[in-house]
Amino acid sequence: MNREMDEFVAYHMGLVTHFIHNNHSHKLSDYDVTRAQAKALYLLSRFGDLTQSELQKRLYIKASTMNGIVESMLKKDLIIRSSSETDRRTKVISLTAAGADLEEKLWLEINTLEKDLMEGFSKEEQSLIISWLKRMKTNLEEKSLQKSKEKEGETE
Q1: pTM for this structure?
Q2: Which CATH number describes the domain made up of 5-117?
Q3: Cα distance between residue 65 and residue 89, in whole Å
Q4: Mean pLDDT across the stretch 58-68?
């Protein structure tokens, strides 16, 4: 069994992710938002109004974590939370003008980070990296789904 971490893709992905997160968090602190809040702003900007549960699923987080993010963003007047017209129990999250303005500024920061990250890579290499990362994500999602189904079978 190979015990050299330097030969593992996941090890290098973890290092790169660590540096990306640190850099991104540092930039976001200038705007008093977290990475999760920035992602929520992006999703609302990209897809429009979303139910709280839709936003939670797109962020891959638990409901309790989503509640904290929403409460924090409400206090900063970045979003509005309203009841759905079809089901009062369902909460709909919308961007405020301030939230949309902030998301635009954050998008510029992300573009700068992306340029720094991909410096020296051709467009073709960048496309390959994205393709490989998407495949890795799919591999892990499929394994996770398979494990969930196996676990369900154990409990029946």
Answers
A1: 0.80
A2: 1.10.10.10
A3: 18
A4: 94
